[in-house]
Specification:
With about 280 residues, the protein is mainly alpha-helical. The chain has helices at about 15-65, 70-75, 80-90, 100-105, 120-125, 135-150, 155-165, 165-175, 180-190, 205-210, 215-230, 235-245, 255-270, 270-280; strands spanning about 105, 245.
Length: about 280
Amino acid sequence: MELIPRILVGGNPGEPVDSAWNEATSRASDWAFRADAAGMTRSAALQWVAVGLTLAFVLLDLLDVVANYATLNREVGVDYRLYMDTATRWLHGGPYFQPDQLAGPYQISAGDILYPPVSLLLFVPFTFLPAILWWLIPAAAVGWCLYRLRPTRTGWQWLAVCAAWPTAPLKILTGNPVVWAVAAMALGVLYAWPSVLVLIKPSLFPFALFGARTRRWWVGLAALLAISLPFGSLWIDWVRSILNAQGGGIAYSSLEIPMLAFPVVAWLGRSHTARAATEIAAA
């Protein structure tokens, strides 16, 4: 009676089950160790790639500062002032777009307005609000995103790559409205619906689709369309200005992609605790 449970079915006749079981578990452990080792090797390689890219981008940033040190003071807030002047001009009955943008084909240059009319809902309040809030509010949105997601160490390493991307410090320095698209994306990875506000920068529209599978995203899109309607004929002017523009195209904002990717990287690299919380929030 004791012989039966010690026979390995399908194995060598008479081989004890304990011996076969030990051999099988030993092989399984060996395979698991090799898989873990391979995974750790890939992970370590990716981490070193992230470190290398960050150092390279920081070096480029420093070289840019050295090369343009004499003009940096003039760059601080230059985009912010452009859009505040544009909003003020519009409030006083002036045009939103430059006349040459509507007259015919033109080469895109500094001072041209490419943001859709609904962006005035962002620009106009800041003609009255303290200028510092133009930077602080997006920074707070990104900070809240990071606090909620609590990225892992690997996540932080790739976030450093996005932050060090040479275009990012320049856009922050000049106060380009793309910082508000980043803020919308930062809240979008948490709550879904704010990502539709990335559409103030239509050339980066794929990011606005984050959360499109949720009902709240569609509610946000409907609300954005509703508040866009009162701008009426300005939309016709905007379409005309975009069609007349030369030197733009789909790739016009490609250098800003790493900035918009920053919240997405934080979401992808979020901790397990934050993963459960954000899944509930985005439902």
